[in-house]
Amino acid sequence: MLAIERRKVILSKLASEGKIIVSDLSREFDVTEETIRRDIDKLAREGLATKTYGGAISVTSPSIDIPYNIRKRANVDLKQKIADNVAGMINDGARIMLDASSTAIYVTRKIKDKKNITVITNSVEILLELADIRGWTVLSTGGTIKEGAFSMVGSQAEKMVRGYHVDMAICSAKGIDATMGITDSNEKDSEMKQAIFSAADHRILAIDSTKFDKKSFVKVCDIADVDTIVTDSAPSEQWLARLEEFGVGIVY
């Protein structure tokens, strides 16, 4: 395995587990502990990990903008549970918008058996996933390809989205906090999610349970601006009461 591939796997482990141990990775990759320490040193210099005695801990959630290929491999089981729940809310003939989150690609795969769906998305990977599907209408937002991601952003993408009206918008986010609301790691993605939500009758926030009580860099919207939150497991009683107060549904 090349060093860059090994570091991607290490980042994925950090994203899903929160920490890594040098000795464990040395055995897993069949390399010396010094090799793993060099990997960690490089990740730390890039601001993607914090070194600790014998390993490292994650600094990627929720404020760092992790490359898409890394995000897609993190918390896969949780995202599949979320996708199952979201898929159950989409009927034949629905018109939907999907953002370019890693969760959205799992939703896309779960609904491919449905008929006459219209999809608008800024996700390059979703467009590729649906390229050979029959009987659907699939629209690309266009826009500028975001560096290090499979997404299209910018004023042209936002303009396209705001020119349509759909039944349902499905977006993810990096965090949800009682005071700051729903947040993401960068301005371009946040603006794109705002545009997508503004075009829909029903706004779904699809986030895994690790995102509750987390703040990221840029505000997307207030909690009350979404209609339903879909997650993988029940949030705390305090969160359930808060969502009821805001009039936001919860599916888990």
Secondary structure layout plus pairing:
Layout (H helix, E strand, L loop, with lengths): L2 H15 L1 E3 H8 L3 H13 L3 E4 L2 E4 L9 H5 L3 H12 L7 E4 L3 H9 L7 E4 L2 H6 L7 E4 L3 E2 L6 E2 L1 H8 L3 E6 L3 E3 L3 E4 L2 H12 L1 E7 L11 E4 L6 E3 L6 H10 L2 E3 L1
Parallel strand pairs: 4-5, 4-9, 5-6, 9-12, 12-14, 14-15
Antiparallel strand pairs: 1-3, 2-3, 7-8, 10-11, 11-13
Helix pairs in contact: 2-3, 5-6, 8-9
Task: Give a quick summary of the entry.
The protein is of the alpha/beta class and 252 residues long. The chain is 39% helix and 23% strand. The N and C termini lie far apart (38 Å).
Helix content: 25-40%
Radius of gyration: 19 Å
Query: How far from one another are the termini?
Result: 38 Å
Largest sheet: 7 strands, parallel
Low-pLDDT stretches are none
Strand order of the largest sheet: 6-5-4-9-12-14-15
Share of β-strand residues: 15-25%
The average pLDDT value, as a whole number, equals 91
* Sequence of secondary-structure elements: HEHHEEHHEHEHEEEHEEEHEEEHE
Shape: globular
The computed structural class is: alpha/beta
Give the tally of β-strands. Answer: 15
- How many alpha or pi helices? 10
Sum up the structure in keywords.
single chain; globular; 10 helices; seven-stranded parallel beta sheet; three-stranded antiparallel beta sheet; alpha/beta; 252 residues
